[in-house]
User: Fold this.
Amino acid sequence: MADIINLLPENIANQIAAGEVIQRPASAVKELLENAVDAGATEIKLFVNDAGKALVQVIDNGKGMSETDARMCFERHATSKIKNIDDLFQVKTMGFRGEALASIAGVAQVELKTKKTGESVGTFIEIENSIVKSQCPVATNEGTNISMKNLFFNVPARRNFLKSNASELKHIVDEFIRVAMAFPSLFFSLTSNGQEVFHLEKGSLKQRIIQILGNNYSAKLVSVKEETDYMNIYGFVGKPETAKRTRGDQYFFVNNRFIKSAYLNHAVMNAFSDMIPRDSFPMYTLFIDIDPSRLDINVHPTKQEIKFEDEKLIYAFVQSAVKHALAQYSVTPTLDFDLDASIQQTDAVSKPFTAEKQFSATGTSLYNTFTQKNQAHFIESKSDLEKWDDNILKQNNLEHLSENRTQKTNFERDDFFSSSFKNHVQAVADKKPTSTSYLQIQKSFIIAENENGFIVIHQQNAHERILYERFTEALKGKPIAIQRSLFPAAIELAPADAVFLTELLPDLNILGYQVEPFGNNSFVVQGSPADVPDGNEKESLEKILEQYKHFNMDMRSFSKREKLLRSMAWQQSIKAGSVLSQKEMETLVEDLFNCNTNNTTPNGKPVFLEFKKDELDKMFGR
Ligand SMILES: Nc1ncnc2c1ncn2[C@@H]1O[C@H](COP(=O)(O)OP(=O)(O)OP(=O)(O)O)[C@@H](O)[C@H]1O
Ligand SMILES: [Mg+2]
Assistant:
């Protein structure tokens, strides 16, 4: 029988292998930025067009490549970073596989201009589909200038899988931030379609965090720093009052490499546990430095997952370091001259951590072993560590990983309603109150009599439903009452948030927010829906954005519009705890029963419960 095994042509092998490394424009961004960092560059500029689909270009002032290396770098397994298997366990560079450029050249059109430090001429190479198109000497700056054009031009099926430009750009911004955050001493910029989105001057980590995440964090960062022989941790966590409803601003770096770890995230969340509301997420940017031989970074093609030799130890270390930092700042708030009076009065600053809490954070002998340099890896009593492990496990069971938290509560609530109150909740307008006299109880519920008995309306849920329908109508063309701001408010956003807001501007405009871009991640609010109290436009927009990001994580399958509608309805609704006048209750109930659906919120929570007279009679044994 004839032999049937063929060697795949190299370009096809590269296309297949590239799938692991290059999934979207953002993957190329990550690889090219990391190469620039490894090359010792101090200035790294990223340019993208059409969210990287048309162009991803990185220009660095690093050490450049010789003519031969410039040709070699596109070969698979060609790397200057490791030489043998032992080196793999001592990797100090971001790259080590020698795969990134081969992968990129396999699925795009690439142009490289590079010149080694001190040389007079550089090298130009054009390569596409793994085939070198041309190579010649070129006059160019020291360093490397590499462009990837038309990603997946030769793999249309993969090109079709790319998401909208807004979504791909968001991925690019995420990767850019992860690299820029890890190297605050280097200059980075990101220019998208000719517009500079980030311009990050060299500085300290604290400055970099503020440049990237926004000014809101200045004066609100708590320094974390513990050094031991086994490992060091340093970085910042946001003060508890800066915790948000979205988990966006959370970064872990191990030996300067961004990693995703639900386990380490849990360690930080635990350290914050009783200082922040349950479904909120603190900001953190934490760096762990550890002997590379104590971890394996080669477990995932994108290197974003790693294995620690001793995961439990790392968990305990991270948790105690963060607890310690929080305890210290709460007991003796550091005098920060930027700290204004209103912040001084917030709970987290003025109510110190109790002595008891501080002890529980710092009093265990395990903690002490960590704080004494030279003794960290020498944990005398093994049982101490086991106790910690037990606790961790216990907490794992009780406090499900935070991702599940909100889901779980919704689920429990659904369950509760389906079993005990299902009969009372029905979707028909004949529940409408017959009288216009209402009673508000607990500043949260409205009680009204109807034909069958009475209904209890949840005021916030009801208002959310009303607004949701009103906004939906507005998007279909029914105008919304707008007030022009007397003093247009300016909002300055973190660059990543600015990307979000820009994406939402057209819909926001229809929904009554007249917002215009003002360059440099700022916006001006010229007008807002008439219901938003004057002077609150800025705050309410920020909250909508925050809620939108929250939904963006939780409800990936919904359209941008749907998420925006729900965010706005949630944000503008009257909250539980607000006293309502008779007139306000009347309008609310009237509006509710004019809705197409009146028994649930857009997110499926019940709006009112009905208690029927005959059922009540039964309950009373009549
Ligand atoms: N911007 C750059 N400046 C100088 N040399 C570079 C640059 N980019 C790549 N190189 C050289 O090309 C080689 C191949 O790069 P490539 O990204 O494909 O692999 P790597 O960085 O070694 O490993 P990995 O696949 O893990 O990224 C590098 O080892 C480096 O020697
Ligand atoms: Mg590389």
Notes: The first strand starts at residue 43 and ends at 49. Residues 31, 35-36, 38-39, 60, 62-65, 73, 78-81, 95-102, 144 surround adenosine-5'-triphosphate (ligand 1) (CB under 6 Å). The CA atoms of residues 330 and 351 lie 8 Å apart. The radius of gyration is 29 Å.
